[in-house]
Amino acid sequence: MSLRRFLPQHICYNALDISLSEFHLTRVLKEPRYNNIAAASATNIPVESNAVNLIVSTECFEHISGVERAVDEIWRISMPRARLICSIPNSYCIMYQKLGPHPEHINHWTFGGFIKFMNSHNFRFIKGFTKGFWVPIPWLRRTGYTPGYQLPISCSNEAYQCNFFYVFEVVKDSTAKSSL
Length: 180
What we know:
Elements lengths: L12 E5 L4 H9 L4 E5 L12 E7 L8 H11 E12 L4 H6 L11 H9 L3 E14 L11 E4 L9 E10 L10
């Protein structure tokens, strides 16, 4: 819900979230801005078809059981040419190779694999990049945190990048999907 800080004050923030925390909800509702917040299932979004022109998803797709249905729901509620801006973790990065898989991630993609997945659901790839060069810091294990730090830089070797970032356009006509 912190993404709303980038919106002009006069715009209502319509948030559908699959993981609202009490902390975030309490903080947001204390502010004078108008917020329209609902908790919903990603596989059954209570929004009319063709109603949304921007969807933002940060680190969610990897957690969704039935992710194909969730992506189809996002497509259904999206207007033609709507934009989806999203990020997902790189489950194959060196961090997970060293520490083991994340116990809550049920979906795993490479950078190009996610583009192919989204293309198959009528989302055209616009642009994307990788970021989050992982640096191990062993003493952090004692504090309960992930033993390392993700530097906000990119490198050419995908295995060293912790996160993938994408912009997709919804395809709702006969135009061809993009290819890798």
